[in-house]
Design goal:
The protein is α+β, with helices and mostly antiparallel strands. Helix content is 33%, strand content 24%. β3 and β4 form a beta hairpin.
């Protein structure tokens, strides 16, 4: 690539960076204005008295659709009856409104404020609620009975069509289980749903019914939107939709319009769930032959962050505040998995069981569930690399007792395996450096004819048997490793609240030590940039001065893209830079053979 081409690439990259900053600022501004308008409208709206339903009008537990759809009789203001059941790892709160799991408190995981992580904390729809229209009719009041000794809670309701819906939630019994089975069942709840037609005529449920997955909200104040989404598994692979999909995608004339709901009518959906960066709620039909035929997801404006407070709407207790935030709306998501339609004969019952997982996105635990739930990790195109690195990191941590040390040792092992390749690349770069005077002469001679200049340069490389790309080979090999590390470290719940050194309190978050105005000071990304500059300064120089100056922008680009990611990623990149620097110092004084022009092969004389 000539000088103009390189400058064009750099300007394009800088333009994309500027555009990303601009669009992020504008989207936050629009979200803030939208939130302010909504709060002002809510404050000025007249309050209307609710219309009371007839006392003898039962509400449908499975909300029907179409012309037959009766209106639910229960009022949204009807207070919920909550029941708490616990295991050593989770406190479950069940509600009779919707007959499902209102929230799950994970005792072994702490949130940013020091409390335990709560799943479905801000969702108005309980996990396991059943409706014919996803997300609607979930305020129906069920009768409930609890058996604390067996860890079971039952819900029942009969609607105007004499369709009775019965649900049984069963908590796991962990005593006496093997470690492998305990790993599988620790965050698992079994849900059995039974529909019974008590009428005298067949009852068609043409659209089947939905089971709600509950909602997910960002786990950290600085989470990116790509980490909060709805996932489902069908046709041998995971499909993921993050919250940014609902706000429209693209830019300028290619930007799509905002979308209120995501749906996919497809066969053989084996599970569906909502997730944030490190935790998830998954609903899985137990039998494959009862696999789902439909999924649905909606965006939620769960929280508005400011410097002093969080705006939230706690649907179960009624707590919350309504004050305009200063940093824009943070979106959450809710979803549902649909079961195929069927018809119940008079007196007939149909039962379907589901596994409900409410816990960490821990790869080995999700693998143990045995229904491809581990695909919700969504490691991307380098998933094999990410899984290998994750398993290796966990193994090293078990030996060393520290995830920070495990990342360092794992990096050193990878760099040691790549040592021969790095040495070969360094030798090739030194040979190119020896040819630098000849290359400079050609560039000066053909500076007005770039095509001829490139042709002569390629001929020069061929004459001296030098591959100009061999110096880039280690970087090419490191690309899948880097992106594998990037994807793995950004989703490894094991790193949460794992400290390292004296200032890194959480390897899953940026290592902010102070703020310069509103700009956070993250130490490890700055160390990463510093070691990149150091490495570039001591490695053999190749290419012209313009190329060398342009490549000096690379550390700045890396810092820009990685500054607010997990500090574990910056730790890995810094350590591998230091190891590369040590390699360069170890090999820089070695004598490299001077390139010798390869003699042209002699042509054989034709016979006869």
């Amino acid at each position: 690539m000539d000088r103009k081409g390189i400058i064009g690439v750099v300007l394009a990259v800088l333009g994309l960076m500027a555009w990303q900053i601009y669009t992020t600022h504008e989207s936050q501004k629009a979200a803030r204005l939208q939130q302010e308008a909504a709060l002002i409208a809510a404050a000025n709206a007249p309050v209307e008295a609710p219309v009371a339903a007839p006392a003898d009008a039962p509400a449908p537990a499975v909300a029907p659709s179409g012309d037959q759809a009766p209106k639910p009789a229960s009022s949204p203001e009807e207070p919920a009856t909550l029941e708490n059941l616990s295991t050593p790892s989770v406190d479950y709160t069940f509600t009779n409104l919707g007959g499902g799991l209102a929230r799950a408190v994970l005792k072994k995981h702490n949130a940013e404020n020091g409390d335990n992580v709560v799943l479905n904390e801000f969702g108005p729809t309980p996990i396991g609620a059943t409706t014919e229209i996803a997300g609607e009719g979930t305020n129906v009041a069920f009768t409930q009975t609890v058996d604390v000794a067996t860890g079971e809670i039952r819900f029942e309701h009969t609607d105007a069509r004499e369709l009775q819906i019965s649900k049984k939630f069963t908590l796991p019994k962990l005593d006496g289980l093997s470690d492998e089975e305990k790993l599988r069942q620790e965050y698992l709840v079994r849900l059995d749903v039974t529909l019974t037609n008590h009428g005298s005529a067949p009852l068609p449920l043409a659209n089947g019914y939905f089971v709600e997955t509950g909602s997910a909200a960002p786990i950290h104040t600085r989470d990116q939107e790509i980490y909060t989404g709805f996932d489902y598994y069908r046709n041998g692979g995971n499909k993921s939709v993050n919250v940014s999909w609902f706000g429209g995608s693209g830019f300028l004339m290619f930007k799509s319009a905002p979308k209120p709901v995501y749906t996919d009518a497809t066969d053989n959906v084996r599970w569906a769930g909502v997730t944030n960066q490190y935790f998830t709620s998954i609903v899985s039909p137990v039998a494959d032959e009862k696999a789902s035929s439909d999924v649905l997801a909606k965006q939620r404006g769960n929280r508005v962050w400011s410097q002093r407070f969080v705006i939230s709407d706690d649907a179960w207790s009624g707590a919350g505040r309504s004050t305009v935030g200063q940093k824009g709306e943070r979106h959450g998501i809710e979803g549902a998995i649909g079961m195929p339609g069927f018809t119940l004969a008079a007196g007939q019952s149909a039962t379907q069981s589901f596994d409900i997982y409410t816990g960490p996105r821990e790869y080995r635990r999700l693998v143990a569930l045995g229904n491809q739930e581990a695909d919700i990790m969504d490691f991307g195109m380098f998933s094999i690399v990410s899984k290998t690195l994750l398993n290796s990191m966990n193994m090293l941590r078990a030996w060393l007792g520290s995830y920070g040390l495990a990342i360092i040792v794992l990096t050193l092992v990878i760099k040691s395996l790549m040592w021969p390749l790095q040495n070969k690349a360094t030798t090739s770069m030194k040979r190119m450096q020896a040819l630098q005077p000849k290359m400079t002469e050609l560039r000066e001679k053909y500076k007005d004819d770039p095509t001829r200049m490139n042709t002569e340069l390629m001929k020069l490389y061929k004459d001296y048997n030098i591959n100009p790309l061999s110096g880039c080979l280690p970087m090419v090999v490191q690309i899948p490793i880097f992106f594998g590390f990037y994807s793995m470290l950004g989703k490894a719940v094991e790193l949460r609240n794992s400290g390292f050194l004296w200032w890194v309190h959480d390897l899953s978050q940026p290592d902010t030590v102070a703020h310069l105005g509103t700009v956070p000071i993250n130490v490890l990304p700055l160390c990463m940039a510093g070691t990149m500059f150091w490495q570039m300064a001591i490695q053999p120089k190749s290419g012209d001065q313009t190329q060398q100056r342009i490549f000096m922008f690379m550390p700045l680009m890396f810092v820009y893209f990685c500054y607010n990611f997990a500090s574990a990623l910056a730790l890995y990149w810094t350590v591998q830079n230091l190891f590369s620097i040590a390699q360069l110092y170890a090999t820089r004084n070695r004598t490299t053979p001077v390139p010798v022009k390869v003699s042209a092969p002699t042509k054989k004389k034709p016979r006869g």
